[in-house]
Amino acid sequence: MTPKLTVVGAGPGDPDLITLKAIKAIASADVIMYDALVNKELLQYASKKAELIFVGKRKGCYAYQQNQINELIVVRALRGNHVVRLKGGDPFIFGRGAEELEYAKEYAIEVAVVPGISSSAAVPAYQGIPLTKRNASQSFWVITGTTKSHEISKDITLAAQSTATVVILMGMGKLSEIVSIFSSEGKAETPIAIIQNGTRKDEKVGIGTISSIEAIVKEKQLSSPAIIIIGEVVNQRVDLTSMYEKANQTNKVLQRISA
Question: Model pTM?
Fold first, then answer.
């Protein structure tokens, strides 16, 4: 077989938020290298013969360093394998997918990418928070909270000066600095939502203002992985509870009928 790497976006956490193209890629893989944020239920689509390798990280604890992951991809692919690199969310949004593709191409490995549903949009949506809404927000920023040098992104300061919705990924470790930046821009009462484990069954949510959010985080014991949404759209939240309850009731009825 021709050595091949397919970088696949696994979506934000809910295993149903996976694309058909991603499922086909997983099913055809000889080797699957998956991250910590990937829902393991997705591995059920893999062939029984596929080699499954966990290469994720959590809170600075690495199973593999990035250069080791790159080398592992090449070693497995050059054995004539189809390697699927399964990454949470979308692999081109803070996922380093482009780096892995570029590295593999240096070894004449065929490459492809399957986009995934980004947590930056899906997680707020699951909580009924529209990132844009007429008369509330005309645009949105998606920013990493922590840079490669472990410092807070300077773009957050720029975003705090705008009227746009601000979505911050990997920002829980910098929450105090984020609060300070927005407060210094006169936005202490701006609405903010923090969503941990978004779209999953163990999802947790804290909603308040810039001035109150740290106390809410402590009270609700929110931590990473979480997404921070700042802006007036948080107050435009749509109540989806009844809709989800009706859907669950319908599913239960259908299960009883089919049984």
Answer: 0.88
DSSP state of 239: -
Contact 46, 8 (CB under 8 A): no
90 is catalytic: no
Q: Report angle CA 195, 197, 199 to the nearest 5 degrees.
A: 90
Of 216, 156, 226, which Cα lies nearest the Cα of 191? 216
DSSP-derived secondary structure for 187-205:
-TT-EEEEEESTTSTT-EE
State the catalytic residue, choosing from 4, 14, 30, 35. Answer: 35
Map residue 112 onto helix, strand or coil: strand
- State how far the alpha carbon of 220 is from the alpha carbons of 42, 194, 197, 207, 236, in Å: 29, 11, 13, 10, 22
Residue-averaged pLDDT of the chain: 92
Range 39-63 burial, b when 16+ CB lie within 10 A, else e = beebeebbeeebeebebbbeeeeee
**Options 21, 24, 57, 220, the catalytic residue:** 57
Q: Is 57 annotated in the active site? A: yes
- Could you report the per-residue pLDDT of 203-222, keeping only the tens digit for each? 999 999 999 999 999 999 99
CB proximity list for 197: less than 8 A, separation 6 or greater: 13, 203, 204, 225, 226
Q: Given pLDDT bands bounded at 50, 70 and 90, which one contains residue 68?
A: very high
Query: Look-up: residue for tokens 């393991």?
Result: 40
| Residue 35 designated active-site | yes
Tokens of 229: 């949404």
Catalytic residue among 4, 30, 87, 170: 170
The pLDDT of 1-26, averaged and rounded, is 96
Quote the CA–CA distance of 5 and 14 in Å, as a whole number.
Answer: 24
